[in-house]
Design brief:
The chain has seven helices and five strands. It is of the alpha/beta class. The chain has one domain: 5'-nuclease (Rossmann fold), CATH 3.40.50. The radius of gyration is 15 Å and the shape is globular.
């Protein structure tokens, strides 16, 4: 089965100092050992680079070159299914924003969700389940430990 990954999971896996690094890494290794694929969208990589290099969010932020290298590694990984937003995903994104009264802080998550939905991804790995539950589409997999 394919599991979509939210930015918080990618950050937790990649940043050893992250409080959920251990549980995120255990989940990742388990999914890979069981033969699951991971769906990844470009907006997740952009947000990962933004968060991982931000000294206000990370006690030891990555330098830009390292964050880009890690993002490239994920994008090229054999286990990763690349999910790109198409016209129908954008239509879903705009409809969901209106239907659910979502504001500007929900833009990236909503576009990510619409992209995954159009790609047929039903499971989403995130600890931000409230951001996606309102959409009524995903089975949420958390990694709090």
């Amino acid at each position: 089965m394919t599991h979509g990954i939210d930015t918080d999971f990618l950050v937790a896996v990649e940043i050893r100092e992250h409080p959920f690094h251990g549980p995120a890494d255990v989940l990742l290794q388990s999914l890979l050992a069981d033969g699951h694929d991971l769906a990844l969208a470009p907006q997740t990589l952009a947000e990962f680079i933004h968060v991982a290099t931000d000294p206000r969010r990370m006690p030891q932020p990555l330098v830009m070159a390292e964050a880009i290298r890690r993002a490239e590694d994920w994008w090229q990984a054999a286990e990763v299914v690349r999910v790109l937003p198409d016209g129908e995903a954008v239509a879903d994104f705009l409809a969901w924003l209106s239907r659910h009264g979502l504001g500007r802080k929900r833009l990236l998550d909503t576009l990510l969700a619409a992209s995954f939905r159009r790609a047929g991804v039903k499971r989403l790995i995130t600890n931000n389940e409230r951001d996606f539950a309102v959409l009524g589409w995903f089975e949420i997999v958390t990694f709090r430990g």
